[in-house]
Input
Amino acid sequence: MNLRSRIIPLVLLLQYPPFIWLFRAYYGLAVQASRYCIGRIEGVRSVYLSGSLVRQEMIYGLSDIDFKIFVAGEKSQEIYRTIRRRFSLLRRVFPMLGSPDEKGIYFLQSFPADYSHHPLVQHLFDDRFFKHRLLSGEDLWDELPLKSDSELDQAECAFGRLRDWLERIHLLADSAELCRPQKQHLFFKAVSDVALLAIRIDAPRFAFCRRVEILREISPQLDERNGRLIENLIRENGSRYRIQCNSPDENLQLFKKMVAVCAEKASSHGGSGISSLDIELRPPLCVGEEPAVASTLRSFSPKIRNISIFRWPQLPLSPFDLHLFNVPVYLLECSEPLGTEELHHLKVHYRRHLRKEAVVLLREHPEFLASLDADLVDHWGGFPGSSDLLCFLLGAPGRVALPDRQRIRVETRVRAFEEQLAAALSHPEFGRMDLRVFPRFLFNAMRVLIFSAELRRHKWQQLFTPGQIVDFLIKETPLLPAFPCRLVEQYEKVLRGRGGFDERLLPKCRFLLAGMLEVSQGGSSWESLEKLNDLPDEHHLKISAAIVTADRPLQLERCLKSLIQLSRPPDELIVVDNGKEPHVRRTVENIRARFPIHYLSINRRGVAVARNAAVRAARGEMIAFVDDDATVAPDWLERLERVFLRDPRVGLAAGAVLNMDCGRKDWIWKFMESVEKV
Amino acid sequence: MMIPILKDYYAGGYLPDPRPKAIPPYLPNVNLAVRRELWNALGGYDEDCVAGEDADLCVRAARSGWSQFFDPEARAYHEPRPGLMSLLRQWIWYAQGGSHFFFKMQERRLEVYWNWDLTPKMYRYRRVLATRFFPIPAMVFVSAFPVWHLLTLLALLLLLGGFRVPALLLLVSEVFLLAGLFRRSTLRRLSWSELCRYTAVVCFINWTCMIASLHAGLKKRKIFFYPGI
Output
């Protein structure tokens, strides 16, 4: 409970005339202050007041002051930051100022591009529902480029708004941060907004002045019990939340019922416009019951009747949507809707223990499917159409036809994913991705690319496991099976924690992803992956080792011996002699090695010259330097090669240099030891 | 400062990108792998360098946007110099190389050694941190040795000149500061004899380098002090 939630009940108790004048003055001062501060910012063309202040259903203490700010020009971080900074300063004095997040600040030049198709924004700008008042600047309201009513897709508006409310209720309904009146008001707003969406589906021209009118309008359509709950809500609101008629459980149930009503109406309206894309329903893979998790979940409430487990047939939102890949879904079916306490405990348990490993869905109402994770509110394909998903999840037999809206949404998401992936592949820091994460990223990307490529050919191909992906690749594309199978092996290895991804496979993986991206964007067909067969699976860099030496034949010999014993020997060795001793040449000639050794003699012209000469004489892609008085560890080149293979932007790689244990005991040696300690 | 990433107590991974005019820690030539494309792009090592061509290459690579990676597991074992003369020769060499390097990197004469653009992320390199809340890496501490010598010299001069009180105050404060810094720095891990030897050798290195760098600077008509560490 923070300070605000303690003060609010006090303010609500004091809603009597002398105090009301004080509050009104305070709010008025806040409005004037923001009008002055914000209206003066360069670029701001007009500031509108919106929300409950304009609609005359203010409750001093609970209501926020909402603004809509129109800024000339393109989206700019500077102005955004300035506005937010000023608001945060103002908010220290006037805590009732609402923060104008993305929904409150509009940039006029990019308005058509950003918002004209966005259903939620259109809903917010609709005069029948959300009134406004000009505070400062020019009146731009009528000139805003919004689509007219007939072009609006009612269900899309509904979906956007509904999703907002579902998330908010999930997050806040059982939160300890809010006080009782705040929660009551939250439910009031939520129920009335969802009711508005339900009414609009039947009667798009419906208009209202106060939220109470919406509730009165929908109340006759509900059964007796819910009608009574709505009356209670209205009464609570009228009393400025000094009394409480509904318990939080009842409020939550009422909200869920309203969502279900909205869904019913939406699906009954969405009967037309089904596209010709048919999906073969595949019964989901049923994993055996995991008794521990299932019984723990069951113990939270006696109302949970049945728990079934599936694998999640879900579309990822981004290339990095990794934590929900192939997790089990627990579907809890309840005989009655759960109460807030039980729901709260269940959510806490989920968040603490199951969040990354499972998805838990609650089915309290035949039409209402909720998730315990607020992030997942949108993931099930949204209303309308959740009944389709239910059939899908529960394995109902037959074909499901995907409605147009659904198809468009799926396609949009897939295109967005492709764009992100293209950007990621060409990003300079792509090579820095953690190799423990890379195999999951790889298979996730392949899964969606295959889905998208097949979608272009009007086929619905959802693959879940890496094994299925590899089967598809082997069957449908001319790729040889060796490489994909190696990728699966690497995936398993990383999954079991037995190591990291093999860097030598990385270059070919990058080519594979680029090729698949091209196919999925429609540029070519699967046949174009044939050219990947010519690339070697494991990429080897051509490495030349180089030593610059001067008059130290014994140390050089020691160094050469250690180079011969490398686990990954270099492809050639170049020795540049900077001195005049003849022994050096003889030492080099006497060494037997599996790789060619080239000897260069440069007469005392300096180290840099010698190194440049070594690089010029070398023919490898990577040149590894060692000093002649040093020796190397056996895995030296292997490690350096892996660094270079992993990230093509790395130009220099070095290893540690430790003191050699050569039996010396003089003061220099002891000094070096103490340097090591420090 | 020219800081080589040399020992395996530095954290492995990518070196952070340096700020525009900073001289970042560099990867030394003892154990270095260079990509052919980088060598072509940067035109190779700078042949005017006496020593420190690796620092020069690394700085140029970092400024052109190439990444640098340090893998502490790719070890090389290095033998220190055999005798006093070769140590002396090595540090004179480093001093000349260092002076050339700093002249090349900096544009204004007064900024030549006072490189305030020290990479602020140096602490990230150290995997092994001292346990006191304000660890002073010995590196920073010992490079200030010549300053202590000069202060002691100043105190002696004051004493000779008859100003006993200021001289004594200076000496006493110096001793306290030194003792305090010693306690807080990583040098407290050494035993007394090791500490004496360490101090002696570092003083030797510092003064060799300073004299050699002064000499190198005077040849170019600039005043330049480089302590070497």
Remarks:
- Strands of chain B lie at 13-14, 31-35, 67-78.
- The helical segments of chain B are 36-42, 53-63, 84-105, 122-125, 138-142, 145-161, 164-184, 192-219.
- Chain B is about 50% helix and 10% strand.
- Chain B touches chain A through 62 residues (CB under 8 Å).
